[in-house]
Structures are given as C-alpha cells and as structure tokens.
Recover the amino acids of this structure.
C-alpha cells in the first residue's frame, strides 16, 4: 500500500488512505518510516489526520501533508504542509539529515 520514495520515506495518496485505512497503522507499525500523504485530490478528515500524526510523533518520524495552496492555512501551524511532492520529499530529507546529526 505504501509506496517508497527514497530511503525511509513512504508516500500515500489520500484516496488510498481512505480505502485502506484499517491497514495503514498496521503497515506503519511494521515499516516505521517518515510519511507523506498527498491530499491534493481528496481531503482526509481531521480526526484521521490527527491519528496518523500522533502515531508519527510517537515513533519520532516525520509526517508531511501535500495540500492545495488555497488550503495550506487551514491546518494547524505546527503541521508540515507543503504544496508539492518535490517540496514534501525535500522536507523529509532535511528532517532525516537533522535527526542523523542529533538535532
């Protein structure tokens, strides 16, 4: 279900999250990776996103949402929201480097 986009970076389309929600946390438990969810074609419920974010915070892995530019300001300020997949991959790569350096 999760597509891998580099070392330890998982990518999911929001449609896949909705269709396979029950399997997602189980797969995240097995993989323990940084996660990008693309919500440009479909938005996820805030409760679903909060559950995923809480899990990613618990395992100390990055969580990034790809959102349409018009919606970036509608999400909590402390969430990592970007408008493109390239920016999401760059963000996660930077976070991984910081973790490796002990920040």
């Amino acid at each position: 279900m999760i597509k891998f986009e580099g070392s330890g970076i998982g990518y999911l389309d929001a449609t896949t999250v909705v269709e396979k929600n029950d399997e997602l946390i189980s797969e995240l438990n097995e993989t323990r990776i940084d996660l990008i969810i693309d919500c440009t074609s479909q938005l996820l419920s805030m409760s679903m996103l909060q559950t995923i974010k809480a899990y990613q915070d618990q395992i100390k892995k990055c969580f990034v949402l790809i959102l349409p530019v018009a919606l970036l300001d509608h999400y909590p300020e402390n969430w990592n929201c970007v408008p493109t997949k390239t920016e999401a991959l760059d963000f996660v790569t930077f976070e991984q480097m910081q973790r490796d350096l002990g920040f």
Observations:
- The mean pLDDT is 94.
